[in-house]
Design brief:
The chain contains 5 helices and 8 strands, in the order H-E-E-E-E-H-E-E-H-H-E-E-H. By secondary structure, the protein is an alpha+beta fold. The strands form 4 sheets. Strands 1-2 form a two-stranded antiparallel ribbon. A two-stranded antiparallel sheet has the order 3-4. The protein starts with a helix and ends with a helix.
């Protein structure tokens, strides 16, 4: 990144109240999570004729290249942070595993989305994905109940 681009980059950042995160204050890609409003997603920076993710630009400039197929995880969990020391290169799967979306949280908690224990005797494989037997049984009972009430 040349000096002009670096100056533009710095002009779009601000230290947060804690002094830890460096927050992107310019344009952002729309909300990333359900419930996020517009502009709550990842910072965007125009570099070399391309709209780039600001956190990736920061990582590549101050730390180094991002290998193909890898993504950047925000260790601080703040999507607008561009502090290179808060960023780590990980696989997409690891980034998902560390995330706060419902599927990752339930897996970490050892329970399905409805609270059933994810134990070997309660799991089965369907279309290459692990499924909860207790949930499947509840769905089957509900389908039968609806079929009876429709008659």
């Amino acid at each position: 990144m040349d000096e002009t681009a670096l100056a533009r980059f710095h002009a779009k950042t601000l230290a947060d109240d804690t002094g830890e995160c460096i927050v992107w204050t310019a344009g952002r890609r729309g909300g990333g999570r359900a419930g996020d409003g517009p502009g709550q997603g990842y910072g965007q920076f125009w570099l070399d004729g391309t709209n780039c993710a600001a956190h990736r630009v920061a990582y590549e400039h101050w730390i180094g290249p991002i290998p193909d197929g890898m993504v950047i995880d925000h260790l601080c969990r703040i999507r607008t942070c561009v502090n290179p020391f808060h960023l780590e290169v990980v696989t997409p799967r690891e980034n998902w595993r560390r995330g706060e979306q419902l599927s990752a949280v339930t897996i970490r908690d050892g329970k399905c989305q409805r609270g059933h224990a994810l134990t070997p005797d309660n799991l089965y494989l369907h279309d290459g994905r692990k499924r909860c037997r207790a949930c499947n049984l509840e769905h089957a009972k509900e389908r039968k109940r609806r079929a009876r009430s429709a008659d």
